[in-house]
Input
Amino acid sequence: MPGKRIGDSASVRTRCQKPDGRDFRGAGAAASSEGFDAIAEPVPGETSHTRTLKRAMEIAGSMQGLAERLGVTVTDLSDWIAGIRRAPTDVYLRALDLVARGRVPDAGD
Output
């Protein structure tokens, strides 16, 4: 449309709406009056997170070894590896770094 600027209120959908105006309630999202502000826990199963954690566990030698390296409990790690809950981002990134290095870092690393 000539003269129509991107961001004009009529051209912007809010609250993750479908083109017909209905709210989109996608899998894994929880809605509030302000829009989507929370992410539900993932459905159990294999994901990039679970694969990364499993590979990191192989590199660390055991679940206990990986839990110690990541500074988490074995119970939490077990849930994350099983896909019951998602690991916090900082824990996932530490596991990803371990996998990228391909070995357990030395004390000086």
Remarks:
- The helical segments are 48-60, 63-70, 74-82, 89-101.
- The chain has two domains: 9-39, 48-101.
- DSSP finds four helices and two strands in the chain.
